[in-house]
UniProtKB/TrEMBL annotation:
Species, as recorded: Ureibacillus aquaedulcis
Organism placement in taxonomy: Bacteria, Bacillati, Bacillota, Bacilli, Bacillales
SUPFAM superfamilies found in the cross-reference section: Undecaprenyl diphosphate synthase
UniProt entry keywords in alphabetical sequence: Magnesium, Metal-binding, Transferase
Entry EC number(s): 2.5.1.-
Name the UniProt record assigns to this protein: Isoprenyl transferase
Pfam families listed in its UniProt record: Prenyltransf (PF01255)
Length: 260
């Protein structure tokens, strides 16, 4: 997996050695979740409209998906649009909703070449029909890909997700398909939108905000958190690898005690 990264690197041997010390195959996180913050601020700093920041943020998604794939990450969950984001000006929401299509139109050949599968969590029904169509087509096209799962949280809110899981479980109990005694943590896992995914090992949030903002509250119970002041459009491969290395160092330190 790492070989893939090195063989693609255009830099010399020395830089390969540096990167080798940066990430090893040991304790690689399977699932990384990212809150991609700071696109508006990035644009404001340059006296550009907010949508320019979102567009640049989309390019960062591409770069980070590539490096995650290269080092052998299994799932990358990206918080692209929260249920709160509908409160933004309509013009900005309209632009954001055009990004999945733009991203998928240009990135699909590479997604197929890399064997990447597109997935999403969130309330798909609440999305504009064009956006929904682009997502459905991409999920259908990539459904047999067995490499990295690129999972977008769109129109996602964790509390709403938990409420829905509770209601679905209550209906099962009501219908006599589950007894109250059978309901445990595993049951709740199974009724969340992430039922098929491993729990995130590492959460990254950019742009200096140190909050969860209603993101994967249940799933992040044992996750390592890594925060950076870097704005999402400025986030790059090296920053990503720095976060992975920090995760690996924490795991090496505490790993011996795990599972005991
Ligand atoms: C804007 C930073 C890619 C966050 C990244 C609709 C804010 C760029 C996608 C995307 C957004 C989503 C689904 C998919 C393929 C690509 C995306 C949104 C925002 C929200 F299948 N970037 N991106 N979606 N931004």
């Amino acid at each position: 997996m790492l070989k893939k990264l090195f063989s693609k690197s255009k830099k010399g041997k020395h830089s390969l050695e540096v990167k080798e010390s940066l990430v090893s195959n040991e304790c690689l996180p399977s699932h990384i979740a990212i809150i991609m913050d700071g696109n508006g601020r990035w644009a404001k700093k340059r006296a550009m409209p907010r949508i320019a920041g979102h567009h640049e943020g989309m390019q960062t998604v591409r770069r980070i998906a590539r490096v995650a794939d290269d080092i052998g990450i299994k799932v990358l969950t990206l918080y692209a649009f929260s249920t709160e984001n509908w409160k933004r000006p309509k013009s900005e929401v309209d632009y954001l909703m055009s990004l999945p299509q733009m991203f998928l139109n240009s990135f699909m050949p590479e997604l197929m070449e890399r064997n990447i599968r597109i997935e999403m969590i969130g309330d798909k029904e609440g999305l504009p029909s064009n956006t929904k169509k682009a997502l459905n087509e991409a999920m259908e096209k990539t459904k047999n890909n067995t490499g990295l799962i690129l999972n977008f949280a769109m129109n996602y809110g964790s509390r709403a997700e938990i409420v829905k899981a509770m209601k679905d479980i209550m209906v099962e109990v009501d219908d006599g398909k589950l007894t109250l005694d059978q309901v445990d943590e595993k049951t709740i896992d199974q009724y969340l939108l992430t039922s098929t995914l491993p729990e995130p090992d590492l959460l990254i949030r950019t742009s200096g905000e140190v909050r969860l903002s209603n993101f994967m509250l249940w799933q992040l119970a044992y996750t390592e958190f890594w925060f950076t002041d870097i704005l999402w459009p400025d986030f790059n491969q090296d920053t990503f690898l720095e976060a992975v290395r920090a995760y690996q160092q924490r795991n090496r330190r505490y790993g011996g005690l795990k599972g005991e």
